Amino acid sequence: MKRFVVALLVSCAGLSTLQAGDHTAFDRFFVDRTLRIDLMHSGSKETESFSLDGTKDDGTWPGSKVNLIDTLNLGEYLLRVYDLATNVLIYSRGYSGIFGEWQTTNEASSGYYRTFSESVRSPFPRRAVQVSVARRDKRMVFRELFTIVVDPNDPSQVNKEKPGVKPRVFTLADNGEPAEKVDIVILGDGYTAAEVEKFRKDAKRYNDLLFSTQPFKSRKQDFNVRALEVESQESGIDVPDKNVWKNAALETRYSTFGLPRYVLTTENKTLRDIAATVPYDFICILVNDTRYGGGGIFNLYSTSYTGEPNKVQEWWMDYMYVHEFGHSFAGLGDEYYTSAVAYNDFYAPGVEPWEPNITALRDARNVKWKAFLSDSIRVPTPWEKARYDSLGQALLRYDRLAPDYYGNFEPIWKQQQEIVRNPASLGKVGAFEGAGYASKGLYRPSLDCRMFSLSIVGFDPVCSAAIERMIDFYAK
After folding, report:
1. Residues 6+ apart with CB under 8 A from 339
2. pLDDT tens digits for 126-140?
3. Angstrom distance (rounded) from CA 4 to CA 184
4. Domains along the chain?
């Protein structure tokens, strides 16, 4: 039996790259299918490695056939695909993953080693390709960690088995060919066969919510949205800190990395196999549970809970869905910093983050969103940070999951909203200290944004521009 060939990349001097906007490149190098490469990503806080789990024909290619080379420079990792015969870079994509986040947790710091399943996807090559995965070093330069040669014409290498039972599909938006649109797939977890109608209503509600929010609202015609009726054996999902365990199809769970509200799944291959029922670029998972929670990782997926028992905090759900999609779709970073998180030193001190809406402000004269700065604004930009921080500390005394939390939260939250709605700064773009889980040393573009406060505020101009760039990249 032939084996996968592992090879080192040739020197950079021998490589070339497709020209941007080359409309003939796709047909020269690819067929209209998707190559999925499943990896095992392992290591500790200080080490990491990849090993091959398998490769698969993952259905029709949903992505752009023109923008094959990533020009956005987003994500902690970078997939590169080279034509083996010519050493031409024919495809690349930035992404982030669960392993990279886990490395910043207490568990990783304690000396644990863990392994997570991970997948990268590209158009299906016509002939042998060299696939590499690189990660940013401490200076944010991509350094290769893994490389392998895949021959699509070797029947022993690529699994072309047809999927088994497919979930039912219902379409929420069909605006054109997948290669010319952003394709979203919405999946439910923790919905039983008797709750299919609830899933349909939830999917419609949150999809309508996303496209009532700018800039998605004005770009609605650039999206296709399909929902898959994934049936679980039991209603709800795992809540480990409450010793609640459910047989849910996608195995999403609360308490990821020990944070009660963080919802992820590590059943990557199951998720990918189901999602591939339809062409997709981005995955949204609706969790049929009443506990506040969600999550979002760039170019992986987003999760969001779908209900409160008494609907008193219904707007929290509306905030959550759009906020988490901002992470997974546009690579936006969290701008808040007073809430409890599972990470330690998520951003290295003094290093400019790759996220478009967070800066270390190493050069105040050349802030990364300089083109968006409001006239005559000071950088750094003064605001009532000390008062806001004291209110945030007061909130930390209360358990967000306790029944009486909302009653304690509301009066403090209203005071915070008075600060971030200050008419003197509202709508202006500057560099406001406090972002990325850090009170000091990191800055956000605006006083308030959907990525900052727990409210139904819109995206600030910098975040909106990042979303528009991503839409353009997939839809043009």
Report:
1. 392, 395, 396
2. 999 999 999 999 899
3. 32
4. 12-159 (2.60.40.3250), 168-330 (3.40.390.10), 364-447 (no CATH)
